[in-house]
Design brief:
Layout (H helix, E strand, L loop, with lengths): L7 H20 L20 H11 L1 H4 L13 H6 L10 H8 L4 H9 L6 H4 L3
Length: 126
């Protein structure tokens, strides 16, 4: 997302989080807090910082013990990167490759598949 300075990102994240929590709570017949903390924005630089942030997010379900590797979590950005959907893609692969300094989609997929999957203990230092 591109921050236009109009607080658009924060407002959209609040809307998404609220709707997601309502839908989940309704589906599971539960009440109460859904998210651990409130949304906060963090500026992310291109290149290695961006790559580390993407790695961190894709490893969340590994750290939680839900899967052994991000490829096993079908709704991760890792899955979209490895097998880009023909329609309704979320990731702008051309822009992502530009930000990461990668020339071809195959190089991006190869790099992503060869990042080490760290254990939960190792991931605490991310």
């Amino acid at each position: 997302m591109l921050d236009t300075g109009d607080d658009v990102i924060a407002k959209n994240m609040q809307l998404i989080a609220g709707r997601t929590a309502q839908a989940y709570n309704q589906r599971k017949s539960r009440k109460g807090a859904f998210w651990e903390d409130r949304y906060h924005a963090t500026a992310v630089q291109a290149d290695e910082h961006l790559a580390r942030c993407l790695l961190y997010m894709d490893r969340n379900m590994v750290r939680a013990g839900a899967v052994a590797h991000p490829r096993e979590w079908p709704v991760s950005s890792y899955s979209e990167l490895i097998q880009p959907p023909q329609r309704y893609a979320i990731t702008d692969h051309a822009k992502l490759m530009e930000l990461l300094g990668i020339k071809r989609l195959g190089d991006l997929q190869h790099a992503s598949d060869h990042f080490p999957v760290a254990s939960p203990v190792q991931m605490k230092h991310f």
